[in-house]
Amino acid sequence: MDQIIEILIAACLVISGVFGIVGSYGLIKLNDPMSRLHAPTKATTLGVGGVLIASILHSMLSENHLSLHELLITLFLFLTAPITANFIAKAHIHRHETPETLPPAGEDQKWATHDIPQDNPAAD
Amino acid sequence: MTRLLSRFFPHPHLTLLLTVVWLLLVNSFSLNSLLFGFFLGIVIPFVTRPYWPDRPVLRRPMKIAEYVLVVLYDIVMANIVVAGIVLFKRNADRKPAWICVPIELRSPEAITVLAGTITMTPGTVTADLSAEGHNLLVHCLDAPDPDAVRDEIKARYERRLMEIFE
């Protein structure tokens, strides 16, 4: 029984390690800034998730006490990671994209990042 | 009575959530930490109320569990697909694309959840919202068929969020 538990925990750690390294490799390999943004979202989901599941399993099955701290790490990651990614994407749009290089924004004419008030001379 | 209640509990769900988060932070259950968590759960929504005047309406809270399971399943599946793209696909063969996803959701909380979900499922990142909030700008790592990605986002996530929020 102990051995099965250990194999299970080790499997979770290996899976998360593999996805972590693939995410890091993606940062080097992918060749444009927006694509590179995709690599870390992978490391923060399955990469971190695997470690956290392993940690919960270990404290529950090997140490016999329930530890759910790890769920909070997942929760905070899911709150913060999309916002970070959105900020980086917005910075990229500001610096490298014009309304012509992006798809049309439908009935709203513009994407929010390009929607700079015209009467403000400092905004140009 | 209800006015008094909503004065002291502007966000009852947030009160509950903060209590649970505090208990998880303490990582052990005791009456002491339960009471302190509940105290935080009352004070924090009360103090931050001016910044969040409208209470989000959850029409079918039970659907949240289904939504979480669908998203977790998609995250695992998309991770494997994206790992394949990163490891085995040459950059020249990869077709990154911007796509515009028209959204019917109107409540800011629902749009935030949708945008966060799109970012957390590997392969797609929410980059921007259109000026009046009617479209999401999504970047895809590899999208040979951008229309299919748009339809999947609308069918899998937006439809379920519509049921939960609106």
- Number of helical runs of chain A? 4
Strand content of chain A: under 5%
* Mean pLDDT rating of chain A: 82
Low-confidence spans of chain A: none
Supply the CATH architecture of the largest domain in chain B: 2-Layer Sandwich
The strand count of chain B comes to 3
Fraction of helical residues of chain A? 55-70%
Low-pLDDT stretches of chain B are none
Based on CA atoms alone, the radius of gyration of chain B comes out at 20 Å
Helix content of chain B: 55-70%
Give a quick precis of the structure.
The complex is a heterodimer of chains A (124) and B (166). Chain A is mainly α. Chain A is built from 4 helices and no strands.
Describe the structure.
The complex is a heterodimer of chains A (124) and B (166). The mean pLDDT of chain A is 82. In chain A, helix 1 packs antiparallel against helix 3 and helix 3 runs antiparallel to helix 4. Chain A is built from four helices and no strands. Chain A has one domain. The longest helix of chain A is centred in the N-terminal third of the chain and has 28 residues. By secondary structure, chain A is an all-alpha fold. Chain B is mainly α and 166 residues long. Chain B has six helices and three strands. A three-stranded antiparallel sheet of chain B has the order 1-3-2. The two termini of chain B are 27 Å apart. The model of chain B has no long low-confidence stretch (mean pLDDT 84). Classes of the chains: A mainly alpha (124), B mainly alpha (166).
